[in-house]
Amino acid sequence: MSDLIPVPEARIRPVILSGGAGTRLWPLSTTDRPKQFLPLVGPTSLLAQTFERTRDPVLFSPPLVICGERHLDQVRATAADAGTDEVRLIAEPAARNTAAAVALAVLSARHDEELLLILPSDHHIADPAGFRATVDAARAGAAAGLIVTFGMRPTRVETGFGYVESGPAIAGLVRRAVRFVEKPDAATARAMIESGDYLWNGGIFLATVATFRAGFEAHSPDILAAVGAALAARAGDQMVPDRAAFEQVRAVAFDHAVMEKFDRIGVIPSDFGWSDVGSWLAAFEHAARDAEGNSVEAGSTVLSGTGNLLRSTGPRLIALGVEGLMLLATDEVVLVAPLSEAQRVREAAAWFAANPAS
Amino acid sequence: MSDLIPVPEARIRPVILSGGAGTRLWPLSTTDRPKQFLPLVGPTSLLAQTFERTRDPVLFSPPLVICGERHLDQVRATAADAGTDEVRLIAEPAARNTAAAVALAVLSARHDEELLLILPSDHHIADPAGFRATVDAARAGAAAGLIVTFGMRPTRVETGFGYVESGPAIAGLVRRAVRFVEKPDAATARAMIESGDYLWNGGIFLATVATFRAGFEAHSPDILAAVGAALAARAGDQMVPDRAAFEQVRAVAFDHAVMEKFDRIGVIPSDFGWSDVGSWLAAFEHAARDAEGNSVEAGSTVLSGTGNLLRSTGPRLIALGVEGLMLLATDEVVLVAPLSEAQRVREAAAWFAANPAS
Q1: Is A331 close to B347, i.e. CB distance below 8 A?
Q2: Staple partner for B148: which of A116, A355, B72, B266, CB 3.0–4.6 Å?
Q3: Is the pTM for the entire model greater than 0.90?
Q4: Cα radius of gyration rounded to whole Å, chain B
């Protein structure tokens, strides 16, 4: 048998990062049930949609999901509901940001030439076929030894995102990434957009294991070493790195740890309807709406009024005679506000946390 | 012992009618928990406030409550919470409107000269001391053999109420009631109000047992007879008339059965801040409001915005950046609408009943 030459896996391994627990989609998004588990845009959750868009047996091998330990059951249930039968799981015993998660994927990979597609679990992509075509086109950059980031064409002056400047073409559609600019002010953002050279950094990365490893070794070797130690120290449960060791890992975004410093970064201009669903307004803009412009789930209704967003994980919702509102409910709390005030959700979450029920 | 002359009870017996189950205060008001059990105006329920305003040991004897059988526990708990230790209860095995309830009180009374004050359990009275003073003044009419109704000075053109025309003074402040007009059109209502002679019929009645009985015997003897039969047929449980017999009682309002026809009706002009709390707008108008004009219960908040009403029996509520809305919640359903659309609550209730959760 030893004379058989192993066939390199040509397919791409999706590495789905499900460790986030943001508060911008409060009150539905909570620590126990973060945003990726919610049906924010369409009838299935963002994580389910992530499974669905990476289920292509020619392009993708079965996904690896890196999630918080407390969310293992929700990830398994979502994969089953989405029809993704084969899924590998690594559960993080503590949240250490995305660099640690990418390092876990690198150190768990089968061989150096395996292609890993790092992708968030809580984004929306309107055009999954376009997404897959772009991933396929990005292979050329990965084959050339680059970490390829997916650069979204800006559609508005956005100060909350990272931007990447695209340079000359290197390999097919993949261009050199010249520099990154994180969360610019509005004037800078406007100038970058008008230049035509800047794209939004979508947090999706394609590279071989060897290239990812080279990036860590060049700019954040401590993270690779600490994650390796946590994996080596783990007990019988193969899915969970050792907690004490993992808590020693520096918590930093992969963008900061590697992308902004590494000299082998490519960017592929992308146009597949990406959104980070970073607010209820974004969820509303990407959700299906009825003839009156309302986005309502089954079981709830807008009896009159236009442009409202209704979402609940608890009671059913009825809106009557209102315009442009978001009405959000759980079994514990209901929030009503104009969609135009969606950024102020944090205030409501802070009030709720500071004022427990009597 | 037979030579002792019984001392007539000079005090008035409050007869609190707690049989209603309206839908105008949906979704908080339900068949299981009607309006009178809700803290719609202030921190205690309307029934609790009714107990409180009739707790005056000089003016009132302990109350008799006539309620639906399913609400016995809620009535007992409310009385206990309100500090009303002594309360008599009659539980109706079926809802037969107010004439049947008044007949139950008449047939359960101790003697013919006992004064009964019939009063709804689900109204709000802003000035309880004024209420008691008016009741005391109405005694003169009851002593003169009248059923005295309490006539509220109209404060708006209201087509949903009954009006009573007041005539010449008969006994102290009590005037002759000339005629009743039920739910007039707007032009008629306006003309009546401008005449100065018409008052709102508040559904509060004071008379002796003998006078109430005479009214029934003159105009609705069937109701008195049927209620008497249901009381005679009851089993060991003294509080509940026989169900089959009680279901034979004609279901009609006491106003229709007796008041509109009887020739011994008085009316006392009243000004004690009465409201039937017939809509969420009425609840809002009578409720305490904060400096921003919001009416909010403990546990909920308006982070910004004015003139909102927030009420919940389930999740806590947060409003942010909205004006003039009502936000109403139970564990099952949330309704948001402008307060100006409060009359459309029935549409929402109908939709909810017709569209069960999937």
Answers
A1: no
A2: B266
A3: no
A4: 21
| Dist CA B45 CA B124 (whole Å) | 10
Q: Which residues pair with residue B64 across a beta bridge?
A: B15, B88
DSSP 8-state symbol, A178: E
List pLDDT tens digits, range A29-82.
988 889 999 988 888 999 999 999 999 999 999 999 999 999 999 999 999 999
Helices B72-81 + B46-53 axis angle, to 10: 50
How many other β-carbons are positioned within 10 Å of the β-carbon of residue B6? 7
Mutation target for A interface from B316, B326, B332, B355: give the one with most A CBs within 10 A.
B316
Q: Does A185 contact chain B (CB < 8 Å)?
A: no
pLDDT tens column, A102-156? 999 999 998 999 999 999 999 999 999 999 999 999 999 999 999 999 999 999 9
The strand pairing partners of A180, in sequence order, are: A164
CA–CA separation, A201 and A154 (whole Å): 10
Across the interface, whether the CB atoms of A315 and B336 are under 8 A apart is answered no
Asked if A333's CB is within 8 angstroms of B336's CB, the reply is: no
The pLDDT, as a whole number, for residue B9 is: 59
Does position A20 have pLDDT exceeding 80, yes or no? no
Contacts of A320 in chain B (CB under 8 A): 335-337, 341, 344, 347-348
